[in-house]
Write a structure and sequence with these properties.
With about 120 residues, the protein is mainly alpha-helical. It has 4 helices and no strands. Helix 2 packs antiparallel against helix 3.
């Protein structure tokens, strides 16, 4: 806001250096937390694809050892996709958990207001 005052005293370099020093602590914390978030995100992505690979591997082993009828491959793929879509839906539903508790608290407050007796009588 006061860039003209800073420029008139020729203190740009000093203020920039002071600002850089002030930002070193938050920068280090941010980098550390960013690394933690990146590792957690990488692990979550890994578990998704590891689960799919495990299901396909189990299906291949079933086909290798128990291929007595023509329906087995179809049933294996149906079960793999059903488990994948079920896990995906469960994961998406789980992300709304905190919002559901907030909605429940808000609903209790609304019903508390509605059920509160009023001193005003409505004329019909």
């Amino acid at each position: 806001m006061n860039y003209r005052t800073v420029a008139s005293f020729a203190n740009e370099e000093k203020l920039l250096n002071d600002y850089k020093v002030l930002l070193e602590g938050p920068k280090a914390k941010t980098i550390k937390s960013a690394h933690c978030v990146a590792v957690i995100y990488g692990l979550s992505q890994f578990t998704i694809y590891a689960q799919i690979a495990t299901l396909f591997y189990a299906g291949a082993m079933i086909l290798k050892h128990y291929h007595d009828d023509g329906e087995t491959p179809v049933n294996i793929f149906i079960s793999i996709f059903a488990m994948n879509f079920g896990a995906l839906a469960a994961g998406q539903a789980n992300q709304f958990g905190p919002d559901m508790s907030k909605a429940k608290i808000a609903a209790k407050k609304i019903f508390g207001i509605i059920e509160k007796p009023t001193e005003i009588t409505a004329l019909a």
